[in-house]
Write a structure and sequence with these properties.
This protein is of the alpha/beta class. The chain is about 40% helix and about 10% strand.
């Protein structure tokens, strides 16, 4: 029998789903002979060998010779998963916004590692989110039976649109990574497999509907304020008095550069206002 460290021995700890070779025996061909290579479905059951293209039958197993069952061995027992590993991600859109409240909630959720950044979701590439996902994938690849959870305070920290959220959920599903929301109506941990995939879709759509609702209310508020004569935006830096002085000095032939410096505004701003009243 081969040693316990060889791929062949690891494969033989499992029964073959294709040729029904029991645990402890090599695979067999359709004519009942020992196969030269183990069947893919069998060595794929070994996490360390999932990326292999082939696992050869050892020479002492007599490939090509009539097959006979080997000595029975206990089938592989799936390792018991340990405690879930949480990878936290926090984000806010602008430098002026604070992240500490999110970081505090992620710390309370026992996140092993937290990634944070101040960047708008309008930016497609978010380096810290990419790092969080990469770490989660690395842990999952090293320990396939270990639950790995991406934890965020709320869904809108991940994406702006349903399409983007669904794309992310598909990636999490492919990697076997769970998602945890610490606040909101769908607070909890969601496995992206089975019924969890439906929850992901609901989360994505609800997040976009909520965002569109906020946008609509904001626009309605601005329109209502405009009807009352209140217009949003930054106050002008060139009021009526400054504009009158600028026009008078400009009419006397003084340069725009000198006028702008005297009034404490930029040349571009002064040019724009003089042009608007010309």
């Amino acid at each position: 029998m081969t040693t316990n460290t060889t791929p062949a021995t690891q494969v033989e700890r499992h029964a073959c789903p294709k040729c029904d070779a029991p645990a402890g025996s090599p695979c067999r061909t359709g004519t009942g002979k020992v196969a030269a290579s183990y069947h893919t479905g069998r060595f794929a059951l070994v996490p360390a060998l999932k990326a292999e293209l082939t696992v050869k039958t050892p020479a002492d197993r007599n490939p090509g010779k009539p097959w006979s069952a080997g000595a029975p061995v206990p089938e592989a027992i799936e390792p018991a998963p340990g405690a879930a590993i949480r990878i936290g991600y926090a984000r806010c859109s602008t430098v002026g916004q604070e992240l500490q409240s999110q970081l505090d909630m992620l710390a309370s959720a026992s996140c092993t590692r937290v990634f944070s950044e101040k960047i708008s979701t309008r930016v497609k590439e978010r380096p810290e989110l990419d790092k969080a996902l990469a770490l989660a994938r690395d842990i999952k690849a090293a320990a396939p039976h270990q639950p790995v959870i991406l934890t965020v305070v709320e869904m809108k920290r991940l994406a702006r649109s349903a399409a983007e959220l669904m794309s992310l959920s598909s990636a999490l599903q492919a990697d076997g990574i769970q998602l945890e929301l610490l606040s909101g109506p769908l607070q909890g941990v969601y496995d992206p497999n089975g019924a969890g995939a439906i929850v992901f879709a609901v989360l994505a759509v609800s997040a976009e509907v909520e965002r569109e609702g906020i946008r609509e209310k904001t626009l309605e508020g601005l329109e209502a304020a405009a009807r009352k004569g209140n217009h949003g935006g930054r106050p002008t830096v060139v009021d009526a008095d400054k504009l009158a002085i600028a026009r008078a000095r400009h009419a006397k032939g003084e340069s725009v550069t000198a006028i702008a410096k005297a009034l404490g505004v930029s040349r571009a701003t002064l040019y724009r206002h003089i042009g608007e009243t010309a």
